[in-house]
């Protein structure tokens, strides 16, 4: 087969070459093809001659050279290769070929250009198929075999990983990767030669040495595409382990799929790494579907994958399922260890079942697993958050005497930090003194935590005493400690004391950082000195500190609260110029302030400027500006901005249409309002209760009842709203249009609910106030006819009015209806 491919390929290429040679049109690229055919170059996927040498020849696809028509096809078409056939035959397939079936080599260096792992939106049928609400599949546990696991562990010891990070070739490879942005063909060739000399441990060391896991992923796929190189299984295991520490679940999934296709042995921990990556990305349901993939793959579970599953279930707030999974794994013979119980203890604490967590700690020795310090720390942290110090002390005694775990500096540091974090300063200081009595020396980190707790509570005198104590014991405060004190003074409005502390920092040789200055600027904005804060922010370069996005946001909100909107907008532009982007919520707050100040035009210009500088603008921002125009009565500008939303691919929502309908109704333009409602329904938007109330209010206000009823029929056809007609009657009564309300009464009395009775009572009271008791009597009669009992006191009042006006028959009949239904009338005059 390979000889046939070679012969067919050579004939096609040589015929093309000689044909061009005959007409005298031999290009440099054709000469390179001839040179490749004369050399020993061959395709790594099949042994046909390889003409894909863009990275090693001086060919530019954008030039005027006429390449061979053969190169217009995809890589697989040129080699007559099908990756599915190769999988069946046991052949190897490059990673890039699996990711992109239409792969075409690019000219020059392309490391990291198209290998973004998050660009893979292709669904994985093994993990994405199935009902989203299906229960967790536990069938993978049935694959567990204790005898087979013991045999595999005995006969196949794991190879110990060697640390090759200091090897010269590893360091040289990392240097070349760092120069990837200025790569040329020569540098890529050097990296390619280095790659072929590296063993699996050294390639793994290169992957571990990358500061960004995305770069490691790009290098992984670039290396896999190279000629005469193939990743060893150890490299795949390392890549999955690195990705499990990130949220790059798509990359982790692709690596595991590649292992399955290349028939590389999959271990349970490899599936566990994928589960952890999914859980870090917040895709907990996808993480659980990995078990289905593991079951289809025939990989037997072990304790590692079981612990990971329990951890993911607890993160997903599925604690009862985690307990059922524990029972199932014990049934098949997988014995839980201390890690398993620690996960369950955390689950108990998250469910506020600290009693069960304590009980599990006490039962662990009976189940063959002794609790460790993490078991106790988990419960202690929960008790510290709840300020249950007495139970913390009891647990520390139990930890010491029953579990033989002596409290150490880490124990006290954990308690102090958790208490301080939640503002329990006195309790934290109490454990701090106890730690000193036991001979443990607390470092500046512990001191800083207590100082921060006192500052959160505004107790600055105690915080200053702790700082003085640090100085007296030779434990010098650091910038974190001073920043906490500065923030504390700013929280209680003592800006002068905060400035004094800032000068004290410089005096002691500590340079205030961004957090320190942000706290000071926030304090200035709190007392209404936002312009001073802005001036200090503009002098940041002179003071040798760099503002952060939080720093800009603090000053911007201070200016906005003081009504200095022009300065706030200019600060946002400055912020964008320095590479910081405010959130859509922050932008909307400023837009809303401009609209409330009667400047919707300025708000629109500010929004457009933000959008032109790359800031994210959503439908809420547009709706706020539209509402501003509507408030000023500029409906043309509002409708024009609605068209701009479609042009900028920001489709309006139901709130946008509701705002416009309200403005149109307020101006009496009901034809345009009706058209907008129909357009909203046509686009598939569901009317909200606010939409119904808005439409009903505006149409009833102007007496457009017929138009309103027709429009309500269309709206109710899209989304049922039970009290729509009740609101119509009640709103008409508010505007004194009782006759129109009486005409709609038939639509309300269809259901005979309590809300319908309330509506009828409102109409009856309205008629009585207007001096029309007979009309009110008719409403009561219609209620009795629909077996809806009106209010007895209201009917007695109505009966009295009817008798007083000479309608004694109607008044008596109304009271008789109550007696007929077995209701006792109270005595009345």
UniProtKB/TrEMBL annotation:
Keyword Glycoprotein: no
Any Pfam family: PPR
Intervals holding PPR repeats: 267-301, 302-336, 337-371, 408-442, 443-477, 478-512, 513-547, 548-582, 618-652, 653-687, 688-718
Extent of Acidic residues compositional bias: 114-128
Region (Disordered): 103-132
Cleavable signal peptide: none
UniProt keyword annotations, A-Z: Repeat
Organism: Ensete ventricosum
Classification via InterPro entries: Ankyrin_rpt-contain_sf, PPR-containing_protein, PPR_rpt, TPR-like_helical_dom_sf
Superkingdom, taxonomy of origin: Eukaryota
Protein name: Pentacotripeptide-repeat region of PRORP domain-containing protein
Family according to the record: Belongs to the PPR family. P subfamily.
């Amino acid at each position: 087969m390979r000889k046939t491919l070679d012969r067919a390929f050579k004939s096609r290429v040589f015929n093309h070459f000689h044909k061009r040679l005959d007409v005298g049109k031999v290009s440099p690229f054709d000469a390179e093809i001839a040179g490749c055919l004369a050399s020993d170059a061959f395709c790594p996927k099949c042994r046909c001659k390889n003409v894909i040498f863009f990275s090693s020849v001086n060919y530019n696809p954008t030039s005027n050279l006429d390449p061979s028509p053969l190169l217009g096809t995809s890589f697989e078409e040129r080699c007559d290769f099908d990756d599915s056939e190769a999988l069946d035959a046991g052949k190897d397939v490059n990673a890039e070929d699996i990711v992109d079936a239409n792969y075409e080599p690019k000219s020059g260096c392309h490391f990291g250009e198209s290998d973004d792992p998050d660009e893979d939106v292709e669904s994985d049928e093994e993990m994405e198929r199935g009902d989203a609400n299906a229960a967790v599949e536990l069938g993978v546990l049935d694959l567990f075999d204790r005898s087979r696991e013991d045999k595999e562990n005995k006969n196949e010891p794991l190879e110990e990983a060697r640390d090759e990070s200091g090897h010269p070739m590893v360091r040289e490879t990392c240097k070349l990767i760092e120069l990837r942005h200025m790569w040329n063909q020569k540098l890529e060739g050097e990296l390619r030669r280095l790659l072929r000399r590296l063993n699996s441990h050294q390639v793994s060391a290169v992957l571990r040495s990358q500061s960004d896991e995305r770069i490691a992923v790009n290098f992984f796929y670039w290396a896999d595409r190279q000629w005469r190189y193939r990743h060893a299984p150890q490299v795949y295991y390392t890549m999955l382990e690195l990705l499990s520490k990130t949220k790059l679940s798509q990359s982790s999934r692709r690596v595991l799929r590649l292992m399955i296709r290349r028939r590389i042995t999959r271990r349970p921990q490899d599936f566990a790494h994928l589960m952890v990556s999914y859980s870090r990305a917040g895709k907990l349901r996808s993480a659980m579907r990995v078990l289905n993939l593991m079951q289809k793959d025939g990989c037997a579970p072990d304790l590692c994958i079981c612990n990971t599953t329990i951890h993911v279930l607890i993160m997903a707030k599925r604690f009862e399922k985690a307990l059922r999974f524990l029972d199932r794994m014990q049934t098949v013979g997988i014995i839980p260890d201390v890690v398993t119980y620690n996960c369950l203890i955390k689950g108990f604490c998250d469910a506020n079942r600290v009693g069960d967590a304590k009980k599990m700690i006490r039962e662990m020795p009976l189940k063959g697993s002794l609790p460790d310090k993490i078991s106790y720390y988990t419960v202690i942290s929960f008790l510290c958050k709840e300020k249950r110090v007495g139970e913390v002390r009891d647990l520390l005694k139990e930890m010491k005497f029953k579990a033989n775990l002596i409290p150490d500096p880490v124990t006290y540091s954990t308690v102090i930090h958790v208490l301080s974090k939640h503002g329990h300063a006195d309790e934290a200081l109490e454990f701090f003194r106890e730690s000193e009595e036991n001979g443990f020396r607390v470092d500046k980190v512990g001191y800083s935590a207590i100082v921060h707790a006192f500052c959160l509570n505004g107790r600055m005198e105690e915080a200053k005493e702790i700082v003085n104590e640090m100085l007296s014991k030779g434990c010098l405060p650091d910038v974190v400690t001073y920043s906490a004190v500065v923030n504390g003074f700013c929280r209680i409005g003592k800006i002068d004391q905060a400035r004094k502390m800032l000068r004290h920092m410089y005096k002691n040789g500590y340079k205030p950082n961004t957090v320190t200055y942000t706290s000071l600027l926030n304090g200035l904005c709190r007392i209404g000195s936002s312009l001073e804060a802005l001036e200090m922010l503009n002098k940041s370069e002179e003071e040798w500190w760099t503002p952060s996005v939080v720093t800009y946001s603090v000053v911007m909100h201070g200016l906005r609260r003081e009504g200095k909107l022009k300065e706030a907008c200019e600060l946002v532009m400055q912020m964008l110029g320095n590479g910081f982007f405010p959130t859509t919520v922050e932008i909307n707050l400023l837009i809303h302030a401009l609209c409330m100040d009667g400047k919707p035009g300025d708000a629109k210009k500010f929004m457009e400027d933000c959008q032109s500088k790359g800031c994210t603008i959503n439908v809420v921002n547009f709706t706020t500006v539209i509402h501003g125009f509507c408030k000023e009565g500029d409906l043309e500008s509002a409708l024009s901005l609605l068209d701009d939303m479609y042009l900028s691919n920001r489709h309006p929502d139901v709130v946008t249409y509701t705002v416009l309908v309200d403005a149109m109704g307020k101006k009496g333009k009901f034809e345009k309002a009706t058209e907008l409602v129909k357009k909203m329904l046509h686009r598939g938007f569901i009317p909200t209760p606010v939409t119904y109330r808005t439409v009903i209010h505006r149409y009833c206000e102007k007496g457009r009842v017929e138009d309103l009823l027709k429009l309500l029929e269309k709206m109710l056809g899209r989304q049922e709203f039970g009290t729509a007609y009740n609101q119509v009657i009640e709103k008409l009564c508010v505007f004194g249009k009782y006759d129109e309300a009486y005409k709609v009464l038939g639509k309300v009395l269809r259901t005979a609910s309590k809300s319908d009775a309330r509506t009828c009572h409102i109409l009856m009271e309205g008629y009585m106030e207007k001096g029309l008791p007979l009309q009110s009597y008719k409403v009561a009669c219609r209620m009795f006819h629909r077996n809806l009992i009106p209010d007895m006191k209201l009917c007695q009042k109505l009966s009295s009015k009817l008798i007083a006006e000479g309608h004694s028959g109607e008044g008596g009949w109304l009271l008789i209806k109550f007696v007929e239904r077995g209701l006792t009338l109270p005595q009345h005059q």
